[in-house]
Amino acid sequence: MSDAQFDAALDLLRRLNPTTLQENLNNLIELQPNLAQDLLSSVDVPLSIQKDPADSNREYLCCDYNRDIDSFRSPWSNTYFPELSPNDVQDSPFPSAPLRKLEILTNDSFDVYRDLYYEGGISSVYLWDVNEEDFDGHDFAGVVLFKKNQSDHSNWDSIHVFEVTMSPSSSDVFNYRVTTTIILHLDQTKNNQDSHMMLSGNLTRQTEKDIAVDMSRPLDVIFTSHVSNLGSLIEDIESQMRNLLETVYFEKTRDIFHQTKNTAVASSAEEANKDAHAEVIKGLQSL
Amino acid sequence: MSSSKFEEVVNKIVSDSPPGELREIYDDLIKITSENSKNTILDAIENYNIQNCIPIDVNGKSIIVSKYNKEGAKFFDPINSVIFSVNHLERKGLDIEPYEFTHPSLEKEQLQDLHDKLQKYLLLNFSGDVSFAVYPILEETNKISIIIVSTKYNPKNFWNGYWRSCYVYDLETKELSGSISTQVHYYEDGNVSFQSGKDISQFDIGDVVSAIKGIETSFEDELDRSFFELNEKQFKALRRRLPVTRSKINWGSAIGSYRLGKNAAEGK
């Protein structure tokens, strides 16, 4: 695979109908199988849902970051479902014990956030170690996921992939870098199905922020600081993205539609012509 | 991959493309596959242009290609009296030759009359780059097709818009049937698609142009209402702007108190 092929594939997926993203992704992989790994790890598709039988079938979200073979790790019981063979599990990725503690805390906090903002839906957070040694409160990475289906006709997926790294200039300052993709689908069928309307797609933004963390405090306090910093950052990003989505979906696309068809503007031009015509007549009469 | 599977995949990708971006789709597909797939992709683009009634630049005139004006490998236009081949990738007419309109029951004047009325309507109701056509239907001599395409392509600002309405009018039964299809693609730091359409079937239509005007004006009004409804109802129900508390979250070790508060309120 060449970079040019990968870039061309990403360009295509940015252009093709976003509602058939998964199908187009599969088709591109059929055309060029050696693009598979890079495409699957860099293209965000709507999140799928899995149940955790070890935690009263509580639902969790699945993406490439919690996948191993064809199974997905649950943030609730830290187990892969469908269950992997003992041999496979030995090689499966898990966060180190201290990072798993942070993962539990982060899931708990974002579950409260989910309830307050989404009033329903599902959230899941997955963390992974970025160093060889076990996590000690310093660098780590992860993904925060939200999904809300209102009906078959409206669906929201938030995917925040982040990295937390200690600033090179100060050991008490961390750089939080977040790449956010929100996939939003809305559709409507009217009048005995003879008319339909659909707004669908995704927007992506990158954000980063340096925030201080007092590293002299005990590890559980450091953990809380990381979750708070990440929490308020993602809360801000989602608020901005929600505004952006509202603008693009309901104002921008509507404006563009009216740049192809616009009875109001075209007719007001006609009105203006009539007015001008009336002015001319008035002018003539006053002569 | 078998050649029939390959064709199927290329066709699917091309048919999923927004109307203003076929050149880029072609370049991407060549890069991903190879120059060897050129003919397969071009065939798919030809089908695409015909199905989507894409306007072709024929000596500076914008002429729509469709299944109705296809004659062998060429396309004809009775109003402009030309018949031509098409470079479907460049959307340009080639081998342009004069074309004499002959029809068992229709006079050219009838088409011209409808064409002129349509033009008046389009001038006042469409804001994009407008192309339109009135073509007789060769197999059914009592029917004519009416096609309207309005586009606004703005790749510099990462958006493209497209309107197509396509009707068949039966001169004997006075039945008008067809469909409206519209698309907007917005792809700055993302990929957002707006698509809408409507099927139409009306009877006892004497004045075709004023019937079309009525249909398309109410479609446009209905769309404006749908944009408003989707925002007010579906979008707002997905995620709140702020929590019920009307303030941002107090993150930290006390975050659990939100849950306690909620449970208390719900009497748990």
SSE topology:
The complex is a heterodimer of chains A (287) and B (268).
Chain A: H1 3-15, H2 21-31, H3 36-42, E1 48-52, E2 58-62, E3 67-68, E4 71-73, E5 80-81, H4 86-91, H5 97-118, E6 122-129, E7 140-151, E8 154-166, E9 173-190, E10 195-212, H6 219-258, H7 263-285
Antiparallel strand pairs in A: 1-2, 3-4, 4-5, 6-7, 7-8, 8-9, 9-10
Chain B: H1 3-15, H2 22-32, H3 38-51, E1 55-58, E2 61-64, E3 70-71, E4 74-77, E5 82-87, E6 92-98, H4 108-125, E7 129-136, E8 143-154, E9 159-170, E10 176-186, E11 190-202, H5 208-238, H6 256-265
Antiparallel strand pairs in B: 1-2, 3-4, 4-5, 5-6, 7-8, 8-9, 9-10, 10-11
Description:
Chain A: Heterodimer of an alpha and a beta subunit. The complex is a heterodimer of chains A (287) and B (268). Chain A has a five-stranded antiparallel β-sheet with strand order 6-7-8-9-10. A three-stranded antiparallel β-sheet of chain A has the order 3-4-5, with no helix packed on it. A two-stranded antiparallel sheet of chain A has the order 1-2. In chain A, 37% of the residues are buried. Chain A is globular and about 65 Å long. In chain A, 43% of the residues lie in helices and 30% in strands. In chain A, a hairpin with a 4-residue loop joins strand 9 and strand 10 (195-212). Chain A has a domain at 95-256: Aspartate Aminotransferase, domain 1 (Alpha-Beta Complex), CATH 3.90.1150. By secondary structure, chain A is of the alpha+beta class. Chain A has helices spanning 3-15, 21-31, 36-42, 86-91, 97-118, 219-258, 263-285; strands at residues 48-52, 58-62, 67-68, 71-73, 80-81, 122-129, 140-151, 154-166, 173-190, 195-212. Chain B has a five-stranded antiparallel β-sheet, with helices on one face. Chain B has a four-stranded antiparallel β-sheet with strand order 3-4-5-6, with no helix packed on it. In chain B, strands 1-2 form a two-stranded antiparallel sheet. Chain B has two domains: 1-51, no CATH class; 52-229, F-actin capping protein, beta subunit (Aspartate Aminotransferase, domain 1, Alpha-Beta Complex). Chain B has 268 residues and is an alpha+beta fold. Strand 10 (195-212) of chain A pairs antiparallel with strand 11 (190-202) of chain B, so a sheet runs across the interface.
